Amino acid sequence: MDKAGVIPKVSQRLDEYFSASLDALPMEKVLPCPIFQYSSRLRRMIVWKSKGCVLGGEFLALFRDRGVYRFWVRKSDLEAFQMYFQAERHLEELELSGEQKQVRPYTESGDKIASLLLADGVDPRYKKGGAASEARKIVEQLTCPNSVEEQKPVTAKAREVVQDVLQGLNCEVATLASEIWKIAELEPELGHGVNVATYTVLFALAFGRIDPALLSDLALAGLLHDIGMSQIPYETASTSWMEHTPESREEYVHHVDFSVSLIRHLDPRISERVLRLVQQHHEKFDGTGYPQKLKGFKFESVAQILGMADLLDTVASGHWDGSAHPLRETFEILERLEKLRTFPEFFNPEIFEAVLKWIHHPDFLDAKKAAEKMIKQETAKLVKGVETR
Ligand SMILES: [Fe+2]
Ligand SMILES: [Fe+2]
To answer: DSSP letter at 30?
Structure first.
Protein backbone atom coordinates (compact mmCIF):
# COMPACT_ATOMS: atom_id res chain seq x y z
CA MET A 1 0.00 0.00 0.00
CA ASP A 2 1.09 3.50 -0.77
CA LYS A 3 0.25 6.76 1.04
CA ALA A 4 -3.34 7.00 2.28
CA GLY A 5 -3.81 3.24 1.83
CA VAL A 6 -4.09 3.45 -1.96
CA ILE A 7 -2.71 0.44 -3.82
CA PRO A 8 -0.52 1.81 -6.62
CA LYS A 9 -1.59 0.74 -10.09
CA VAL A 10 0.93 -1.63 -11.65
CA SER A 11 1.62 -0.91 -15.30
CA GLN A 12 1.21 -3.97 -17.52
CA ARG A 13 3.36 -2.53 -20.29
CA LEU A 14 6.41 -4.79 -20.22
CA ASP A 15 8.43 -2.27 -22.22
CA GLU A 16 8.32 -0.02 -19.15
CA TYR A 17 10.44 -2.50 -17.16
CA PHE A 18 13.88 -4.08 -17.29
CA SER A 19 14.80 -7.37 -15.74
CA ALA A 20 17.86 -8.46 -13.80
CA SER A 21 19.23 -11.63 -12.31
CA LEU A 22 18.31 -12.51 -8.73
CA ASP A 23 22.02 -13.07 -8.12
CA ALA A 24 22.58 -9.35 -8.69
CA LEU A 25 20.40 -8.36 -5.71
CA PRO A 26 22.40 -7.11 -2.70
CA MET A 27 21.43 -8.69 0.62
CA GLU A 28 20.32 -6.90 3.77
CA LYS A 29 19.88 -3.48 2.09
CA VAL A 30 16.77 -1.30 2.01
CA LEU A 31 15.06 -1.48 -1.38
CA PRO A 32 14.85 2.05 -2.90
CA CYS A 33 11.89 1.14 -5.15
CA PRO A 34 9.45 -1.74 -5.61
CA ILE A 35 10.60 -4.82 -7.51
CA PHE A 36 8.26 -6.99 -9.57
CA GLN A 37 7.71 -10.49 -10.85
CA TYR A 38 5.98 -11.33 -14.11
CA SER A 39 3.47 -14.12 -13.57
CA SER A 40 3.03 -16.05 -16.81
CA ARG A 41 0.14 -17.88 -15.15
CA LEU A 42 -1.77 -14.69 -14.37
CA ARG A 43 -0.24 -12.94 -17.38
CA ARG A 44 0.38 -9.96 -15.13
CA MET A 45 3.25 -7.96 -13.67
CA ILE A 46 2.85 -8.08 -9.91
CA VAL A 47 4.65 -6.30 -7.07
CA TRP A 48 7.10 -8.76 -5.55
CA LYS A 49 8.68 -6.60 -2.83
CA SER A 50 7.76 -3.01 -1.94
CA LYS A 51 10.02 -0.01 -1.53
CA GLY A 52 11.65 -0.06 1.94
CA CYS A 53 11.86 -3.86 2.28
CA VAL A 54 15.10 -5.54 3.25
CA LEU A 55 15.85 -8.75 1.38
CA GLY A 56 17.48 -11.59 3.22
CA GLY A 57 19.44 -14.51 1.78
CA GLU A 58 16.86 -17.03 2.99
CA PHE A 59 14.05 -15.26 1.18
CA LEU A 60 15.97 -15.26 -2.11
CA ALA A 61 17.02 -18.90 -1.71
CA LEU A 62 13.37 -19.86 -1.27
CA PHE A 63 12.44 -18.27 -4.59
CA ARG A 64 15.48 -19.72 -6.36
CA ASP A 65 14.29 -23.17 -5.20
CA ARG A 66 10.94 -22.44 -6.84
CA GLY A 67 12.66 -21.70 -10.14
CA VAL A 68 12.58 -17.89 -9.91
CA TYR A 69 15.84 -16.47 -11.20
CA ARG A 70 14.89 -12.97 -12.33
CA PHE A 71 12.96 -9.94 -11.18
CA TRP A 72 11.76 -6.75 -12.84
CA VAL A 73 12.24 -3.05 -12.06
CA ARG A 74 10.47 -0.02 -13.56
CA LYS A 75 12.70 1.87 -15.99
CA SER A 76 11.61 5.05 -14.21
CA ASP A 77 13.34 3.68 -11.06
CA LEU A 78 16.59 2.93 -12.88
CA GLU A 79 18.59 5.73 -11.23
CA ALA A 80 17.53 4.80 -7.68
CA PHE A 81 18.17 1.17 -8.43
CA GLN A 82 21.66 1.85 -9.78
CA MET A 83 22.56 3.61 -6.50
CA TYR A 84 21.40 0.51 -4.68
CA PHE A 85 23.97 -1.58 -6.50
CA GLN A 86 27.04 0.58 -6.03
CA ALA A 87 29.52 -1.96 -7.40
CA GLU A 88 30.47 -1.33 -11.03
CA ARG A 89 30.38 -5.04 -11.87
CA HIS A 90 26.76 -5.25 -10.76
CA LEU A 91 25.77 -2.23 -12.80
CA GLU A 92 27.09 -3.76 -16.00
CA GLU A 93 25.33 -6.99 -15.22
CA LEU A 94 22.09 -5.18 -14.50
CA GLU A 95 22.03 -3.12 -17.68
CA LEU A 96 23.15 -5.98 -19.86
CA SER A 97 20.58 -8.41 -18.55
CA GLY A 98 17.86 -5.75 -18.75
CA GLU A 99 18.61 -5.30 -22.45
CA GLN A 100 18.81 -8.98 -23.21
CA LYS A 101 15.79 -10.13 -21.37
CA GLN A 102 13.40 -7.48 -22.59
CA VAL A 103 10.05 -9.12 -23.25
CA ARG A 104 7.62 -7.68 -25.74
CA PRO A 105 4.13 -6.83 -24.46
CA TYR A 106 1.33 -9.25 -25.25
CA THR A 107 -0.60 -8.54 -28.43
CA GLU A 108 -4.12 -7.33 -27.80
CA SER A 109 -5.67 -10.12 -29.91
CA GLY A 110 -3.51 -12.85 -28.36
CA ASP A 111 -4.40 -11.66 -24.89
CA LYS A 112 -8.09 -11.44 -25.79
CA ILE A 113 -8.26 -14.95 -27.28
CA ALA A 114 -6.26 -16.56 -24.44
CA SER A 115 -8.36 -14.82 -21.77
CA LEU A 116 -11.55 -15.95 -23.50
CA LEU A 117 -10.40 -19.57 -23.74
CA LEU A 118 -9.42 -19.69 -20.08
CA ALA A 119 -12.37 -17.73 -18.67
CA ASP A 120 -14.31 -19.70 -16.04
CA GLY A 121 -18.09 -19.85 -16.02
CA VAL A 122 -18.47 -18.41 -19.52
CA ASP A 123 -20.91 -19.99 -21.97
CA PRO A 124 -18.79 -22.10 -24.41
CA ARG A 125 -20.81 -20.69 -27.34
CA TYR A 126 -19.73 -17.18 -26.35
CA LYS A 127 -16.11 -18.34 -26.02
CA LYS A 128 -16.21 -19.99 -29.44
CA GLY A 129 -17.87 -17.00 -31.08
CA GLY A 130 -15.49 -14.47 -29.53
CA ALA A 131 -12.33 -16.44 -30.35
CA ALA A 132 -13.59 -17.19 -33.88
CA SER A 133 -14.37 -13.59 -34.73
CA GLU A 134 -10.99 -12.39 -33.38
CA ALA A 135 -9.15 -15.10 -35.35
CA ARG A 136 -11.09 -14.32 -38.55
CA LYS A 137 -10.10 -10.69 -38.16
CA ILE A 138 -6.42 -11.71 -38.13
CA VAL A 139 -6.89 -14.03 -41.12
CA GLU A 140 -8.51 -11.16 -42.99
CA GLN A 141 -5.64 -8.79 -42.05
CA LEU A 142 -3.17 -11.39 -43.27
CA THR A 143 -4.62 -11.12 -46.75
CA CYS A 144 -4.56 -7.31 -47.00
CA PRO A 145 -0.94 -6.75 -48.14
CA ASN A 146 -0.32 -6.35 -51.85
CA SER A 147 3.36 -7.25 -51.89
CA VAL A 148 5.71 -9.76 -50.30
CA GLU A 149 7.51 -6.91 -48.46
CA GLU A 150 4.25 -5.55 -47.00
CA GLN A 151 3.31 -9.09 -46.02
CA LYS A 152 6.28 -9.61 -43.67
CA PRO A 153 5.26 -7.36 -40.73
CA VAL A 154 1.63 -8.50 -40.97
CA THR A 155 2.66 -12.17 -40.83
CA ALA A 156 5.07 -11.39 -37.98
CA LYS A 157 2.19 -9.84 -36.02
CA ALA A 158 -0.03 -12.89 -36.61
CA ARG A 159 2.82 -15.11 -35.40
CA GLU A 160 3.02 -13.07 -32.20
CA VAL A 161 -0.74 -13.38 -31.65
CA VAL A 162 -0.64 -17.19 -31.89
CA GLN A 163 2.48 -17.35 -29.74
CA ASP A 164 0.66 -15.32 -27.08
CA VAL A 165 -2.37 -17.61 -27.29
CA LEU A 166 -0.12 -20.64 -26.72
CA GLN A 167 1.66 -19.02 -23.79
CA GLY A 168 -1.67 -18.18 -22.27
CA LEU A 169 -3.14 -21.68 -22.59
CA ASN A 170 -1.27 -22.78 -19.51
CA CYS A 171 -0.99 -26.47 -20.40
CA GLU A 172 2.08 -28.67 -20.74
CA VAL A 173 1.88 -29.29 -24.49
CA ALA A 174 1.27 -25.59 -25.20
CA THR A 175 4.38 -24.78 -23.15
CA LEU A 176 6.33 -27.36 -25.12
CA ALA A 177 5.05 -25.82 -28.37
CA SER A 178 6.05 -22.35 -27.10
CA GLU A 179 9.58 -23.57 -26.34
CA ILE A 180 9.98 -25.15 -29.79
CA TRP A 181 8.47 -22.00 -31.33
CA LYS A 182 11.11 -19.79 -29.69
CA ILE A 183 13.92 -21.98 -31.07
CA ALA A 184 12.29 -22.05 -34.53
CA GLU A 185 11.99 -18.24 -34.57
CA LEU A 186 15.77 -17.95 -34.29
CA GLU A 187 16.35 -20.16 -37.31
CA PRO A 188 15.16 -18.69 -40.64
CA GLU A 189 15.00 -22.17 -42.19
CA LEU A 190 12.34 -23.12 -39.63
CA GLY A 191 10.19 -20.11 -40.51
CA HIS A 192 7.93 -22.35 -42.62
CA GLY A 193 7.01 -24.39 -39.54
CA VAL A 194 6.23 -21.23 -37.55
CA ASN A 195 4.03 -19.87 -40.35
CA VAL A 196 2.20 -23.17 -40.75
CA ALA A 197 1.62 -23.35 -36.97
CA THR A 198 0.33 -19.76 -37.06
CA TYR A 199 -2.13 -20.28 -39.91
CA THR A 200 -3.29 -23.67 -38.59
CA VAL A 201 -4.09 -22.35 -35.11
CA LEU A 202 -5.80 -19.25 -36.54
CA PHE A 203 -7.92 -21.33 -38.96
CA ALA A 204 -8.86 -23.74 -36.17
CA LEU A 205 -9.88 -20.86 -33.88
CA ALA A 206 -11.78 -19.21 -36.71
CA PHE A 207 -13.71 -22.48 -37.15
CA GLY A 208 -14.62 -22.35 -33.45
CA ARG A 209 -12.18 -25.05 -32.32
CA ILE A 210 -11.16 -23.80 -28.88
CA ASP A 211 -10.01 -26.88 -26.97
CA PRO A 212 -6.56 -25.93 -25.57
CA ALA A 213 -5.22 -29.48 -26.04
CA LEU A 214 -6.25 -29.47 -29.71
CA LEU A 215 -4.81 -26.01 -30.34
CA SER A 216 -1.53 -27.04 -28.70
CA ASP A 217 -1.38 -30.21 -30.80
CA LEU A 218 -2.07 -28.23 -33.97
CA ALA A 219 0.71 -25.77 -33.11
CA LEU A 220 3.14 -28.62 -32.47
CA ALA A 221 2.15 -30.41 -35.68
CA GLY A 222 2.59 -27.15 -37.62
CA LEU A 223 6.00 -26.51 -36.12
CA LEU A 224 7.29 -30.05 -36.61
CA HIS A 225 5.50 -31.33 -39.73
CA ASP A 226 8.55 -31.02 -42.01
CA ILE A 227 11.22 -31.94 -39.48
CA GLY A 228 11.84 -35.06 -41.62
CA MET A 229 13.22 -32.86 -44.42
CA SER A 230 16.51 -33.05 -42.52
CA GLN A 231 16.72 -36.73 -43.51
CA ILE A 232 16.50 -36.26 -47.28
CA PRO A 233 19.18 -34.72 -49.55
CA TYR A 234 19.31 -30.92 -49.31
CA GLU A 235 18.93 -30.44 -53.09
CA THR A 236 15.73 -32.49 -53.02
CA ALA A 237 14.33 -30.69 -49.97
CA SER A 238 15.06 -27.25 -51.44
CA THR A 239 13.71 -27.89 -54.95
CA SER A 240 10.35 -26.22 -55.67
CA TRP A 241 7.49 -28.67 -56.23
CA MET A 242 7.04 -27.79 -59.94
CA GLU A 243 10.73 -28.41 -60.66
CA HIS A 244 10.94 -31.94 -59.23
CA THR A 245 11.76 -34.86 -61.52
CA PRO A 246 9.63 -37.99 -60.90
CA GLU A 247 12.65 -39.49 -59.06
CA SER A 248 13.30 -36.49 -56.81
CA ARG A 249 9.57 -36.20 -56.10
CA GLU A 250 9.60 -39.80 -54.89
CA GLU A 251 12.54 -39.01 -52.62
CA TYR A 252 10.78 -35.85 -51.38
CA VAL A 253 7.62 -37.62 -50.23
CA HIS A 254 9.63 -39.70 -47.74
CA HIS A 255 10.02 -36.62 -45.54
CA VAL A 256 6.54 -37.30 -44.10
CA ASP A 257 7.49 -40.70 -42.69
CA PHE A 258 10.79 -39.32 -41.48
CA SER A 259 8.97 -36.50 -39.68
CA VAL A 260 6.68 -38.98 -37.91
CA SER A 261 9.60 -41.19 -36.80
CA LEU A 262 11.62 -38.23 -35.52
CA ILE A 263 8.69 -36.73 -33.60
CA ARG A 264 7.89 -40.11 -32.04
CA HIS A 265 11.31 -40.03 -30.38
CA LEU A 266 11.40 -36.31 -29.62
CA ASP A 267 9.29 -36.00 -26.47
CA PRO A 268 6.93 -38.43 -24.73
CA ARG A 269 4.43 -35.58 -24.15
CA ILE A 270 3.68 -35.41 -27.90
CA SER A 271 0.37 -37.14 -28.55
CA GLU A 272 -0.68 -39.67 -31.20
CA ARG A 273 -2.92 -36.94 -32.64
CA VAL A 274 0.15 -34.82 -33.49
CA LEU A 275 1.68 -37.85 -35.25
CA ARG A 276 -1.57 -38.43 -37.21
CA LEU A 277 -1.75 -34.76 -38.21
CA VAL A 278 1.85 -34.81 -39.44
CA GLN A 279 1.30 -38.12 -41.24
CA GLN A 280 -1.66 -36.59 -43.11
CA HIS A 281 -0.35 -33.12 -43.97
CA HIS A 282 0.17 -33.93 -47.68
CA GLU A 283 -3.02 -35.94 -48.23
CA LYS A 284 -5.47 -34.36 -50.67
CA PHE A 285 -9.24 -34.30 -50.80
CA ASP A 286 -9.35 -36.22 -54.12
CA GLY A 287 -7.06 -38.99 -52.81
CA THR A 288 -4.04 -38.05 -54.95
CA GLY A 289 -1.94 -36.90 -51.99
CA TYR A 290 0.76 -38.84 -50.20
CA PRO A 291 1.92 -41.03 -48.54
CA GLN A 292 -1.34 -42.93 -47.89
CA LYS A 293 -3.50 -41.48 -50.72
CA LEU A 294 -6.38 -40.99 -48.26
CA LYS A 295 -9.53 -39.78 -49.96
CA GLY A 296 -12.05 -37.11 -49.05
CA PHE A 297 -13.42 -37.54 -45.59
CA LYS A 298 -11.06 -40.40 -44.67
CA PHE A 299 -8.66 -38.03 -42.96
CA GLU A 300 -9.27 -35.69 -40.07
CA SER A 301 -10.78 -32.27 -40.66
CA VAL A 302 -8.08 -30.66 -38.54
CA ALA A 303 -5.43 -32.39 -40.69
CA GLN A 304 -7.11 -30.75 -43.69
CA ILE A 305 -6.70 -27.38 -41.97
CA LEU A 306 -3.01 -28.14 -41.37
CA GLY A 307 -2.65 -29.23 -45.03
CA MET A 308 -4.27 -25.99 -46.19
CA ALA A 309 -1.95 -23.90 -43.98
CA ASP A 310 1.03 -25.87 -45.31
CA LEU A 311 0.13 -25.38 -48.97
CA LEU A 312 -0.62 -21.72 -48.31
CA ASP A 313 2.86 -21.08 -46.94
CA THR A 314 4.50 -23.32 -49.55
CA VAL A 315 2.99 -21.25 -52.37
CA ALA A 316 3.50 -17.91 -50.56
CA SER A 317 7.18 -18.62 -49.83
CA GLY A 318 7.93 -19.51 -53.46
CA HIS A 319 8.46 -23.20 -52.79
CA TRP A 320 5.66 -24.06 -55.20
CA ASP A 321 6.44 -22.24 -58.45
CA GLY A 322 9.73 -20.53 -57.59
CA SER A 323 8.32 -17.05 -56.86
CA ALA A 324 7.07 -15.66 -53.55
CA HIS A 325 3.56 -14.17 -53.29
CA PRO A 326 1.64 -12.18 -50.67
CA LEU A 327 -1.11 -14.23 -49.04
CA ARG A 328 -4.00 -12.60 -50.88
CA GLU A 329 -2.42 -13.56 -54.21
CA THR A 330 -1.63 -17.01 -52.80
CA PHE A 331 -5.30 -17.60 -52.01
CA GLU A 332 -6.18 -16.53 -55.56
CA ILE A 333 -3.65 -19.06 -56.92
CA LEU A 334 -5.14 -21.81 -54.73
CA GLU A 335 -8.65 -20.79 -55.78
CA ARG A 336 -7.65 -21.02 -59.44
CA LEU A 337 -6.02 -24.42 -58.89
CA GLU A 338 -9.21 -25.73 -57.28
CA LYS A 339 -11.47 -24.27 -59.97
CA LEU A 340 -9.47 -25.93 -62.76
CA ARG A 341 -10.93 -29.23 -61.60
CA THR A 342 -14.52 -30.39 -61.68
CA PHE A 343 -13.83 -32.29 -58.45
CA PRO A 344 -11.84 -30.37 -55.78
CA GLU A 345 -8.24 -31.58 -55.68
CA PHE A 346 -6.68 -30.27 -52.50
CA PHE A 347 -9.31 -29.25 -50.00
CA ASN A 348 -12.68 -30.14 -48.64
CA PRO A 349 -14.74 -27.49 -50.51
CA GLU A 350 -16.71 -26.60 -47.36
CA ILE A 351 -13.53 -25.80 -45.44
CA PHE A 352 -11.90 -23.91 -48.30
CA GLU A 353 -15.03 -21.89 -49.16
CA ALA A 354 -15.43 -20.88 -45.51
CA VAL A 355 -11.85 -19.55 -45.40
CA LEU A 356 -12.37 -17.69 -48.68
CA LYS A 357 -15.45 -16.03 -47.19
CA TRP A 358 -13.41 -14.68 -44.25
CA ILE A 359 -10.75 -13.19 -46.51
CA HIS A 360 -13.06 -11.63 -49.06
CA HIS A 361 -13.12 -8.29 -47.29
CA PRO A 362 -14.86 -5.34 -49.00
CA ASP A 363 -11.73 -4.05 -50.81
CA PHE A 364 -11.01 -7.48 -52.15
CA LEU A 365 -14.62 -7.95 -53.27
CA ASP A 366 -14.64 -4.53 -54.94
CA ALA A 367 -11.42 -5.30 -56.79
CA LYS A 368 -12.75 -8.73 -57.77
CA LYS A 369 -16.08 -7.28 -58.96
CA ALA A 370 -14.26 -4.55 -60.92
CA ALA A 371 -12.01 -7.16 -62.53
CA GLU A 372 -15.01 -9.34 -63.41
CA LYS A 373 -16.85 -6.33 -64.86
CA MET A 374 -13.83 -5.39 -66.95
CA ILE A 375 -13.44 -8.95 -68.23
CA LYS A 376 -17.16 -8.99 -69.17
CA GLN A 377 -16.86 -5.66 -71.00
CA GLU A 378 -13.70 -6.74 -72.82
CA THR A 379 -15.28 -10.07 -73.76
CA ALA A 380 -18.42 -8.27 -75.01
CA LYS A 381 -16.26 -5.96 -77.15
CA LEU A 382 -14.37 -8.93 -78.51
CA VAL A 383 -17.54 -10.84 -79.34
CA LYS A 384 -19.05 -7.76 -80.98
CA GLY A 385 -15.87 -7.28 -83.02
CA VAL A 386 -15.98 -10.90 -84.21
CA GLU A 387 -19.69 -10.60 -85.11
CA THR A 388 -19.28 -7.40 -87.12
CA ARG A 389 -16.22 -8.66 -89.00
FE1 LIG B 1 5.70 -31.52 -45.87
FE1 LIG C 1 5.47 -28.06 -45.11
So the answer is: B
